[in-house]
Design brief:
By secondary structure, the chain is mainly α. It has one domain. Helix content is 16%, strand content 0%.
Length: 95
């Protein structure tokens, strides 16, 4: 299911052009965060080895490898955030 990375609204368009925006929130659709190759765990946040990923992942770009993700919305891993908070709490209390 195609959804906007910014607001999770369903995207009905089959072809996504560089200038297309979400009808609900106005976010750019031809952006890394909506691409099936986007992966925060990879170097440069992209699984496509030939792509030159832009710095701003939420903005429209000229990438020729863009393919809208059918995986649905991506949510940040809360486990990493919880571990960092626990670490900070452990060492900030020992001043």
């Amino acid at each position: 299911m195609r959804v906007c990375q910014a607001c999770s609204a369903k995207i009905e368009q089959k072809f996504i052009g560089r200038a297309d925006e979400c009808a609900s929130c106005g976010a750019d659709l031809h952006a890394c965060l909506n691409c099936r190759f986007y992966d925060e765990q990879m170097s440069r946040s992209c699984r496509e080895p030939l792509a030159e990923p832009p710095r701003e992942k939420a903005r429209s770009n000229f990438c020729d490898y863009f393919d809208f993700s059918e995986a649905g919305p991506r949510h940040k891993d809360d486990a990493g955030e919880a571990a960092k908070a626990a670490f900070d709490a452990l060492f900030s209390s020992k001043k």
